[in-house]
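Fold it.
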Amino acid sequence: MSALTVLALAVGFVLLIGGGEVLVRGAGGLATTLGISPLVVGLTVVAFATSAPEFAVSVDAALSGYPGLAVGNVVGSNIANILLILGLTAIVAPLVATSRIVRVDIPIMVLFSLVALLVALDGTISFLDGLLL
């Protein structure tokens, strides 16, 4: 690995951390300004913003004839977010799982994951499946 590659990687990480900070501050400010729960902003604005790269990669992969890569990107990203990112974040700063998160939010996440599983069981995620998802 060349020094330029290492430098580019380091600069990318610094920009990523800075961008994450800007996103968190902006989302927190939006929640305060609108008087809504930070959880709601996290589930919508932050979720869409952080999912944009996966969307771009998956669309490009599907259009390039690599649908398996598109599906793998989405599934792998979700597994990494749920297990790796959540776990590492809890190591850095303990997280509070309110009873609402445990009783409502996690079951909804599991339900939607099951819907994705069901539409993929036939081996194809069609246009209509995409509309359902």
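Residues 96-133 form one domain.
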